[in-house]
Structure formats: C-alpha cells, structure tokens
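Changelog entry

Holo records now carry the ligand SMILES as an explicit input line rather than a separate metadata file. Below, a converted record for flavin-adenine dinucleotide, shown in the new format.
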Amino acid sequence: MSKVLIVADHLNGQLNSAVARCVSAAKAIDGASVDIVVLASNAAPIAAEAASIAGVDKVIAISDAAFGALIAQTVAPVVAGLADGYTHVFGPSSSFGKDVMPCIAALLDVEQVSDLMSVESATRFTRPIYAGNAIIVVEAPAGRVVVATIRAASWAAAAAGGRASIESVTASVAASTHSHVLDLQQGKSDRPDLQAASRVVSGGRALGSAENFAVVYALADKLGAAVGASRAAVDAGYVPSDLQVGQTGKIISPELYIACGISGAIQHITGIKDAGTIVAINKDADAPIFEVADFGLVADLFQVLPELTNAL
Ligand SMILES: Cc1cc2nc3c(=O)[nH]c(=O)nc-3n(C[C@H](O)[C@H](O)[C@H](O)COP(=O)(O)OP(=O)(O)OC[C@H]3O[C@@H](n4cnc5c(N)ncnc54)[C@H](O)[C@@H]3O)c2cc1C
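Structure line, unchanged by the conversion:
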C-alpha cells in the first residue's frame, strides 16, 4: 500500500493552501495513506491546521528554532531522515517546494518528479513541459521512494473536517554552516492573495506606467479580486514581481481571470491554464489571448476598465 509524506509549506504561522491540494494529489494514488510533516519554530498551531484536512492520517510536528526560516539546508536532511517507510514524499511546487524537494530527492538518491499534474498509477504521472505546451507521462522506477513537487493549480484542495492525530517529534537539526536567511521582506497588501484568490484582474505592458495600473486596482477592488500582471509589466516596474503570473511567476487557478492589455504569450498562458473563466480585454483583435479567452472584448482598456468599474 502507498504511504505518502507531505512536507508542509507555511508562513507566518499559517499553512499554505497548496498543502490541501497536495493531499488531493496523494489521495489520487490508490488507497494511499497520507501523513504531513510540519517543521516550524512553533509547529503546534500549524500542525493543528494540517490535521483538519480531510484524508490526512497523521501529522508529524517538529519544533526547532532552526525552522524559523525554512531552507533546504536544514529541512531536507530532517525530511530525508523521516522518509523510511514512505513510498512517496510530496511537496507543493511553491518557492519552498522548489527549494526543498530536490535536496530531499538528492539525499534519498532518487530523481525528482516535478510539477505533477495527474496520477496514472503509484509510479506514473503527468507533468507539463515546454511551458505547458505539451504534457508528458513520466514513470518513476518501482521499488524506490518517489519524490515529487505537486502543481497546486491542477488539484482541488482536499476538504476541511479531518481529525488526524498529531505526533510531536524531536529531531536533531544541523544548522547550516553556509546558508542563512538574513531577512525576509514581504509585500503588505489588504487585497486577496494572488494564488488563493477566486478572482484575479491582471494588467500587461499596455498599462504603460505604475500610476496607470490604478485602473486595474480599481476594478479588482470592486470585484474583491487579487491583482496580477504579465512579466512585461513587472519588468517595466509597474508592479512588484510577486504579482507576476506565468511560467516564471505564479501558476494560478482562479474561477475568473480578467487579462487587461496582455497579449497572451505562451509563458503567460501557462500560468492560467487551470483558470475557470478567462476574460480578455485587448485592442488588437488578433492578440493570441483571444484564442484561450472565454469572453473577449476588443477595446481600449483605458476606456472600458473605468466604465466596467463604475457599472459594477
Ligand atoms: C523564459 C521566459 C519566461 C517567461 N515568463 C513569463 C511569465 O511568467 N509571465 C509572463 O507574463 N510572461 C513571461 N515571459 C514573457 C512573455 O514571453 C511576454 O513577453 C510577456 O508575457 C508579454 O507581456 P504583455 O502581454 O504584457 O506585453 P505585450 O506582449 O507587449 O502585449 C501588450 C498587449 O496590450 C495590448 N494593448 C496595448 N494597448 C492597449 C490598450 N490601450 N487597451 C487594450 N489593449 C492594449 C496590445 O495589443 C498587446 O496585445 C517569459 C518569457 C520567457 C522567454
């Protein structure tokens, strides 16, 4: 029987919502039992949150001051030490997962399966390649632990209402001699989180300046939506980089995505493949974004965004 260990991503004492999506991916493996390991300076409250995810059997809580900031150098050896007895070790394809999971795989002497989209069997999975232009089936060797990052946008979150047991464990954590977190700077925003939001309004290069982005923020505020952006808008300095959607930004799956003045380059589209309804506003009727949009409006965004915001 498959036994999956999920490495919890968390920040500021709160579990990343991608962890519940990892549980869905783990449960897609026939009859798998699922444990979650939480490593934190104070793991108890986060472990309690993890234990409430339906389908989780056990949460392993490890508190240590070294986990005040989660980096591969301290996390990976501890998780690798726990992996014995598990058939799979999963983590989300978040910045945390991309840092930690390859090191866990290396310590366990296996190759990582990245961006797992679907489960065909305990060792066969699909994942996107070429910026999401193609989906490949990958087969991990049988009889070895499978270490994988989970493409959160491809999985619905497992429901709440679970009552997993919590086991507090002490681990010997070796402080890294060469890597330290000096500072963590977080953007402050009252708006919904881009990766968790059910509605997102995004702006592209067409906005032309940081000031002009006000029309995007105004519509987003009316809709209770998060704000996103294309890489061109980020590179031009109109918005901070944590708003970037796409291959080298965030992969999101909101119910509603409104792309304003975004051409629809494949690297952007790969970030919104799993969005429910895509609305595109672009003054060029031939813009590729219209090929993926459910609703398209050929118009000048500086005219229609204020009109739309006022009409709502
Ligand atoms: C390795 C790699 C990774 C990348 N990763 C990403 C990524 O993660 N995310 C990402 O977004 N891009 C990424 N890119 C960049 C991507 O290829 C595009 O260059 C980028 O998405 C273009 O951004 P844009 O659509 O805002 O700008 P443009 O392509 O310049 O499009 C602007 C659009 O606005 C329209 N427009 C202009 N004025 C108006 C107006 N007044 N009203 C309405 N519409 C108007 C135009 O018709 C045009 O379609 C990556 C590229 C590479 C090579």
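Spot-checked after migration. The chain is about 25% helix and 25% strand. Residues 188 and 242 are 11 Å apart (CA to CA).
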